[in-house]
Design a protein that fits this description.
The chain is an all-alpha fold and 118 residues long. The chain contains six helices and no strands.
Amino acid sequence: MDYINAFWVGGLICALVQILLEKTKLMPGRIMVMLVCTGAFLSAIGLYEPFMEFAGAGASVPLLGFGNVLMKGVREAVDEQGFLGLFAGGFKAGAVGTSAALIFGYLASLIFNPKMKK
């Protein structure tokens, strides 16, 4: 059942984002920022953890999950460092995912022949 929940929740998130892309004039970058901020907000009010327990990877893999990771990092850093943790927590928590995206993006550009859009 875990796989089914992850599949339909992740698919629903992707479908809603696709509808936003198709039916609004929002740019993809703004929608991505909106997803990260929504994940951080849901984490801040305590709704993301139960959602992630139910949906598993369907909730933790999309950009909503990245917002949750950032918020958890900020919360932990504020508990440890106080006010300065507000600035350091998100960087520390999101460093692995961001680094992986950069490294794999670079490797993909070496394997494939990227071209500028015309």
